[in-house]
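One-letter codes give the sequence; each number marks local geometry. A record appears below:


***
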Amino acid sequence: NTNLSMRLAMDELKDKGSLTLDINGSEVVLYEIDLLIDTAQIEGYVSEQGGEITVADLVAKGAVRNGFPVKVLGDGEVSAAYTLKGVKASASAKSKIEAAGGSISED
């Protein structure tokens, strides 16, 4: 049943953040999803002094789920210099964070 297969695929995508297919005993990743967060949301998690923010910090605050890649989007303003570690960022988010004196590291 195609509808059942699609529902199972969507459940896997939601639960694991990726959709895989087993082809002759080899697992092939068809799609991976990043958890997205805006600079506006991050502003709520930093103090006026800025500081360092890791994915673990965002997980602890309930902003993202654990075990998934995180990508920061540039929707919102950046008012403090902070360093984001372990995330990807859109060009606009990177530009705003760097303009405020902060930085982004995928490590």
